[in-house]
Write a structure and sequence with these properties.
The protein has ten helices and eight strands. The protein is of the alpha/beta class. Helix 1 crosses helix 8, helix 3 packs parallel to helix 5 and helix 9 runs parallel beside helix 10. Helix content is about 40%, strand content about 15%. About 40% of the residues are buried. An eight-stranded mixed beta sheet has the order 1-2-4-3-5-6-7-8, with helices on both faces. The termini are far apart.
Length: about 325
């Protein structure tokens, strides 16, 4: 496949060192296309070269149509003194990735600054979620694979490897806990309808599934929509690494298509309109055909159940939530 991986160096006063970065463009790319951008935030002890590793995955998804034509880019950030945290002058790694890097790509590659998604694994998943929750309306989607999310009081189970350094860095830079940002900004996150993807193995050697499950439960309680995969038997690295990136990129691709209306065919839209017209006409006569397994099926079912749903909401306001209110026990 004739995609192109380009490497360059970013210089910005936000950080005191040159920042290598890599950009993957699709076949026959032209900067005049104004393509959406996927920012890939690499994990600890990694770099922008992770994009070279995942290039075949991206190319396959382009061929299959699971990921629309996009520019995918990654910037190298350090682990020690990095962690996608703004530590102070010359070490503002969150600001670099969230602001300066996308601005550079908008200028140099013509990407659409209104259509930027965040994708990260491990440390990168932590960074992606933290950045997304700070300004949810700005991003097209966020996908986090085995994100490095620590409990409020991390112990030995949750501080293996560099996670102890992350805990220390967060303690020295308040306001960098992803879950705290979510809770502080929950109304904006919910209102934005930001597509959120979480995935982690349940045998993650770093126990990343603890923090991922905690975030899932918080999103549920806050009634914020999200896609959550807890993968049986999967670890932090190995085959799950590729499978998870493929699933995350496919999720982002679906969000991109939904943004442009390409998630429904013309026939699907006509079928949904027919159901809505039937309801508006007083539900007289036979309803349109229910395409149970088609894209119009869910909309049709909600039209059919609308009177019952309205009565359920009248009896119990929680019925209008996306997620039910679970008992404390």
């Amino acid at each position: 496949m004739d995609s192109q991986l380009t490497r360059d160096v970013l210089k910005d006063p936000l950080v005191s060192q040159e920042v290598p970065y890599a950009v993957l463009t699709p076949p026959s790319w032209s900067r005049d296309e104004r393509l959406p951008l996927v920012l890939l935030l690499h994990g600890a002890s990694s770099s922008a070269e992770v994009l070279n590793v995942f290039q075949p995955v991206v190319e396959r998804l382009w061929i299959e149509g699971a990921l629309p034509r996009s520019v995918v880019a990654s910037a190298s950030t350090p682990t020690a003194g990095g962690f996608y945290i703004d530590h102070g002058p010359g070490h503002q790694w969150e600001s670099l990735v969230a602001n300066a890097f996308p601005q550079l790509l908008a200028t140099s590659y013509g990407v659409d600054p209104e259509r930027v998604s965040l994708l990260g694994a491990s440390m990168g998943g932590y960074g992606a979620l933290k950045i997304a929750f700070a300004d949810p309306g700005r991003w097209e989607a966020v996908a986090a694979v085995a994100p490095a999310l620590l409990p409020a009081e991390p112990g030995a189970r949750n501080t293996l490897g560099v996670l102890g350094e992350l805990a220390a860095a967060m303690a020295g830079a308040p306001g960098n806990d992803a879950l705290e940002r979510l809770r502080a900004n929950a109304e904006a996150v919910r209102a934005s309808s930001l597509p959120i993807f979480l995935r982690c193995g349940d045998r993650d050697v770093f126990a990343m599934h603890d923090g991922t499950e905690r975030l899932h439960r918080a999103l549920w309680d806050l009634d914020i929509g999200h896609d959550y995969h807890l993968v049986y038997g999967a670890d932090h690295i190995g085959p799950e690494g590729v499978a998870a990136q493929r699933a995350a990129l496919s999720f982002i691709g679906a969000a991109q298509r939904a943004r442009t209306g390409d998630d429904l065919t013309a026939a699907d839209r006509e079928h949904v309109a027919a159901w809505e017209a039937w309801a508006e006409a007083g539900r007289q006569g036979p309803p349109p055909t229910l395409d149970t397994f088609g894209r119009s099926g869910p909309a049709a079912m909600r039209v059919l159940l609308a009177p019952q749903i309205a009565e359920a909401v009248r009896q119990d306001p929680a019925a209008q939530r996306r997620y039910g209110v679970l008992p404390a026990d």
